[in-house]
Amino acid sequence: CQSRGDHPRHHEGGAYPHVPSGLLPREQDRKERRPRVRVTLEGFEGDRHAGLTRLSDARTPHYPRGTEIRNSRQVSIVSAEELSAIAVDMGLPELRPEWLGANLVLGGIPDLTHLPPSTRLLFPHDTVLVVEGENLPCTLPGQVLQDRYPHIPGLVTAFPKVAIHRRGVLGWVERSGFICEGDPVTVRITRQVPYEP
User: Fold this and answer.
1) pLDDT tier at 23 (50, 70, 90 boundaries)?
2) Which residues of 29-63 are buried (b: 16+ CB within 10 A; e: fewer)?
């Protein structure tokens, strides 16, 4: 059954899972495309960001750095269309999701980065992901791009400006299962009420 406040949207053939390709410290941020990935309540199996908890950092200044907190950043999700738009605006031949450390690429969801918190992404092999919020861009992926395209100046500082509101979202696993390449995904958006104190 469907709650009255939900707005289901069905998108065909949009899942492209990525998981790390290496275990050495210098390779932990490298990811490769996989046709199938196991998803547990800790995140994508084998991913360095997986875990039920994480240590607080600069993104959570209201806690002392290093405090154990709930991990709501288990999964990084990007849009194929938004990546293409960023690449065009930055003058890049291509922008691969693994260069941004993404776990999952989805296609066919308009303005994916604008999905509101608590949006649920339902996959056919039981997996359900919940959107935590927008993944704000920083200069680290810009440095990766600069290393890839040394002949194009200014990519380090350009990336955060060009990718804002197009960098994708972060999320966490509500139900474990599998995600396979080409899986359809159902998007359930909870009705939003603007907060006006």
Assistant:
1) very low
2) bebeebeebbbeebbbeebebbeeebeeeeeeeee
